[in-house]
Structures are given as C-alpha cells and as structure tokens.
Design brief:
heterodimer; A: alpha+beta; 7 helices; 8 strands; elongated; B: mainly alpha; Rna Polymerase Sigma Factor, Chain: A; 2 domains; binds zinc ion
Chain lengths: 246, 184
C-alpha cells in the first residue's frame, strides 16, 4: 500500500470500519507513525463523544452479572515488556508445558458442562446454593489458571472429562454414563504414579446421571483412577479401578 | 493535560478493588451500552456486549496505557469493536436496516432526571456538530460509527468511490473533533 494510503487508514481504524487485512496494515503502520497515533487518539476521543450522544443506562441486572463474573475472574498482571498493539491478552503469561494428548478447551464449553452437573446435584435449595457457590468458585479458579487443560477419555463404559492444572495442583473430573453407586457405596478417585496410589476425593452424583468431583493434591500423576468403595471412604482401592492416563 | 478522573479508579480496580471498578462501570456503562445498542439494534445483544466489555476491562485493567488515551476512549473503543464484531459475524445488513426503524421510533432513554439533563445537552451538542458536516461526511460517520459498516460497505451504499468515503470520514471526524472541542 502507498505511503499516503497507509496514513489514510487511521480514521477508518478508529471507528472499526476497516476490513481485516486493512486493519492489520493500519496496526503495523500505527506502531511506526507517531502522527497517525496522535490522530487515532483524537479520533477515539471524538468517538467517545459520539457514544455520549447515545447514553442509555443498562438494567441493574447487567451490573450484577458483571460483578458476579468479576469475582470469579482472575485479573491479568501488567505487561512488563513493550506492549504490542492488540496483543493477545494471554501474552506475557508463561504457560507450563502441556502433554500432547491434552486438548485445547474453551471456558464456555467447560462452564456449560459444569453448569449442567451443578444444576441437578443436590436436594435442598439453600444447601444446593451453598455447595454450588463453593463448587463454582473452585471450578472458576481452576478454569482461570493459565495452564489448565482438558482431556476427554473413556472411563470403563462411561465418558470422562478432566480439567487439570499443575499450577492449582488440582483437577476436576466430570463423568457421563457411570452407573449409580449401590446404596452405602460411592465412587472414589485416586492418583496413581509409579505404583503409588493416593486418595483424590469422591465423585458426587447429580440428578441427570453425571458424576463430578474435585481431585486435589495432584502432583504429576500418571493416572487418575476411579473405583467403587464403601461410602465412608477407603485408604486404598479395594475394588477394580478404571483409569484415565494423564 | 487534564487529569483523567477515571484513571485513578482504574488503577485501584487493577489491584482488585471492586468498588473502584464499580465506579468505572457507573460512569461508562451508559455510553458503552448505548453505543452497543445503537450498533446492534438489539437490547439483549447490547447487554451481552456490555457484560463482555466490562469483564475484559476487569481482566486487563492493569494493562491500560494512559499514554494512548483516556480511560473512556479505551473502554468505549472496546465496546464499539465488540458490537461491530457481533453484527458483522451475525446479521445481514438488510435485517438490521429493517430493525433500525423500530429502534429509532422508541421512547427516549429512561435515565434519572439529573442524568437526563446532562445527556440531553450532550446529545444536542453532538447533533448540532453533526449537522455542520457536509452530507457525505455525515453519512460516512453515521454509517461507520453508528451503523457498524465498513468503509467499503458505506461506499457501496452511498454509491460513491471508496476513496471518497475514506476522505469524507476523515474530514468528518476532524470537523467533529474541532466542533466538540476534543483534545484542546
Ligand atoms: Zn502515518
């Protein structure tokens, strides 16, 4: 693009009226041209006034939703290096190495899954809200961790989804299609590595037939296992365990 | 340069101060929601945009760089971009034009009384400055900023060459800047 042509993209860029390729060219140029950066700042302040002519207060519910989400959302630290225009929000966050089998996941997908699990999980409303809030807070913390990844795997005849973070040292397991535990019994999770098997918490049933649980003290295990145990808990697996490779 | 009163609130919000963040929200949710509503022509989508914008602000406020502009400009730029992204990915231009008539005919905004006065004054000022533009300048600004079209789409609609729209948009923004007393 000609020199004049690139300078001329600033107004369109300021009001988001460029095609994607033009916007990229504008960003490259803005990084180098102080005059255009000054124009851009002016145009954006002008646009603030244009928005000011359209003021309309959103319903109070919008703030409630924002506030609720903010409480569950980790804030990013300041960028220490020279910031790139339009840099990816995760830039500057060091990601821990991820094993190759683990799939990328989206918060939306994870939240949808977790919401379904939570929805049917407990009987009394207040009990459910308490547990849900606690559970949701733990989940959100886990999902917000920069290294959290998801793995999907069969667990016996059932299908399991694991969200795991080395940084949080914890994983969340959601299982679909696991038969209900017989009365007096419960599903227990275990961490296994090099012949060492440690208890990792219980899987709780939900009304829609799923089971879920938060497994803490993860370390660097080879497997997450699930076995049927007496409801009061066991210190080592007594029955046959199903496993997921981590 | 005048001290930006929102910059301090944002700085506090960046260290997790939710009350300071609420202060930022109270001052800018009106224009953010308003512009999202104007662009999307849809209350529910505008509410979603508004939520996304302020959550992004909460996440990234430590990265706000005051050398690039005011807090208002930063946040309303995010709001406008998100609203525009939404309509470009979701809706055909024709449906939105049909919806435009409906939204314009609705009652005036339901603000509190003191807000109403302040907002009405600002709205009048902006309208007065828009009226001082040439017709093509005004249409270029309106179709891009308020309607969310690209310059190319605006050129097609106005049946003028793309370079004309680019030039008129730039001239229009400069005239508006001067008329509104921005950056003095
Ligand atoms: Zn330039």
């Amino acid at each position: 693009m000609s020199e004049a042509g690139v300078h001329g993209l600033t107004a369109g860029y300021a009001v988001d009226a460029l095609d994607p390729e033009e916007a990229e060219a504008a960003e490259r140029h803005l990084a180098e041209c102080e005059d255009c950066r000054r124009d851009l700042a002016d145009f954006r302040e002008t646009a603030v006034r244009l928005a000011g002519a359209e003021v309309r207060e959103p319903r109070p519910e919008v703030w409630e939703a924002v506030r609720g989400a903010a409480l569950r959302t980790r804030q990013l630290p300041p960028l220490t290096g020279a910031p790139e225009p339009g840099a990816h929000p995760r830039a500057g966050v060091v990601r821990l190495p991820v094993r190759s089998r683990w799939l990328p996941w989206t918060v939306a997908a994870a939240c949808a899954l977790v919401a379904v699990v939570l929805a049917g999980s407990l009987v009394s409303v207040s009990q459910r809200m308490d547990a849900e809030a606690r559970h949701a807070a733990e989940m959100e913390k886990l999902l917000a961790a920069p290294d959290t990844n998801m793995v999907e795997a069969p667990l016996g005849d059932a299908r399991a989804t694991v969200f795991a973070s080395y940084e949080m040292d914890a994983a969340m397991l959601v299982v679909e299609g696991l038969p209900s535990a017989p009365r007096g019994m419960a599903y227990q999770m275990w961490w296994a590595d090099e012949g060492d098997v440690r208890p990792a918490g219980r899987l709780e049933p939900s009304a829609d037939g799923r089971h879920s649980g938060m497994a803490e003290d993860m370390g660097r295990p080879e497997q997450l296992r699930v076995s049927l145990e007496p409801a009061e808990g066991a210190s080592e697996p007594s029955g046959e365990a199903m496993s997921i490779d981590m | 340069m005048l001290e930006d009163p929102l910059a301090r609130l944002l700085q506090q919000a960046a260290i997790g101060d939710l009350a300071a963040f609420e202060g930022v929200y109270r001052r800018l949710s009106g224009p953010a929601f308003g512009i999202a509503r104007r662009v999307t022509l849809n209350e529910a989508q505008a509410e979603e945009v508004c939520q996304e914008v302020f959550l992004e602000v909460w996440r990234t406020c430590a990265r706000y760089d005051r050398s690039r502009g005011s807090v208002s400009a930063w946040i309303l730029t995010i709001a406008h971009r998100r609203a525009v992204d939404r309509v470009r990915s979701e809706q055909a231009a024709s449906t939105r034009l049909a919806a435009a008539g409906r939204l314009e005919s609705e009652a005036t905004p339901r603000d509190s009384v003191p807000d109403q006065v302040e907002h009405r004054l600002e709205r009048e000022k902006v309208r007065r400055c828009l009226r001082r533009l040439t017709r093509t300048q005004r249409e270029a600004v309106r179709l891009t900023y308020y309607t969310g079209y690209t310059q190319r789409q605006a050129a097609d609609l106005l049946e003028v060459p793309l370079t004309t729209v680019k030039g008129r948009l730039r001239d229009g923004l400069i005239r508006l800047r001067d008329c509104l007393g921005v950056g003095v």
